[in-house]
Amino acid sequence: MAVSKNSRIKDYIFLHISIMIFSFTPVFTKMASIEFNKNGIWGIKLYFFFFLMLLDCFIYALAWQKNIQKFELSVAYANKSVYLIWSQIWAVLIFGEVLSIKNVIGLLVVLIGVLVVQKYE
Q: Cα-atom radius of gyration of the chain, to the nearest Å?
């Protein structure tokens, strides 16, 4: 059964939105850690961020199961590495971290690797 180009594009969009959603897990983890350092186990935000982290993982797990039905496993996992790019974006935008040249080079290597795998799908 042939898959239309529009359908394939939608599949990739869903895959990458799923990966972007999963990239919030370390954000919630870091926010929980910050709250723990401020207020210990009594900080209510600690449990809120912990809940968000678990919810994020749950949503991603469901989405991942849908995604791997539509792609070869090697392609899905290659695209999953884009998670590193999203994580760096959130680190800069949310936590004000600074990317080093090594970070940027590493992210470019990841992106090139994903594109190479895509080319041979």
A: 17
